[in-house]
Design goal:
By secondary structure, the chain is an alpha+beta fold. The protein contains two helices and six strands, in the order ββββββαα. It folds into two domains: 91 residues, Immunoglobulin-like (Sandwich); 46 residues. The chain is elongated.
């Protein structure tokens, strides 16, 4: 294969949970879809779960990462999550060349509209929520 056309990769990720007792309700968030950008082309992606979720939705976080939310609303003792991806990884410029600047420009575009103050607020809210959860669990 010509390096100018990139390298094809097929990646399979599997996570399995085996619970000691039946779990009747479970909410999950997975970040398993590879990025599709100037350096990597996403050719195929499939996400499967066993058992099949009762509810699911896909989204994108503030940084442009794909999110997969799913909930299991029936009792289950096992959960298997499998993601299969096919990507073409493209050749990058040598370090110190325009490729690094392009990458930085790509990140700046992704973060457009996301302000540092917003992240500080989110971090502060996360700390407060974590403290509230810890307090309620240990109380």
């Amino acid at each position: 294969m010509n390096m100018a056309s990139g390298v094809l990769l097929e990646v399979t990720h599997e996570t399995r949970y085996d619970y000691g007792a039946p779990v009747s309700l479970a909410h999950h968030l997975a970040h398993l879809r590879p990025i599709d950008d100037a350096h990597q082309q996403l050719l195929a992606f499939e996400l499967s779960t066993e058992p099949t979720p009762g509810a699911q939705r896909d989204g994108v976080d503030a940084l442009g990462n794909a999110e997969h939310h799913f909930s299991l609303v029936m009792a289950h003792r096992r959960l298997a999550v499998r993601a299969t991806s096919r990507v073409r990884v493209l050749r990058r410029s040598a370090p110190g060349r325009s490729g690094c600047q392009t990458s930085l420009q790509d990140h700046e575009k992704q973060l457009k509209g996301v302000h540092l103050a917003d992240w500080r607020d989110l971090k502060s809210q996360h700390r407060q929520n974590r403290h509230q959860v810890s307090s309620s669990v240990h109380a």
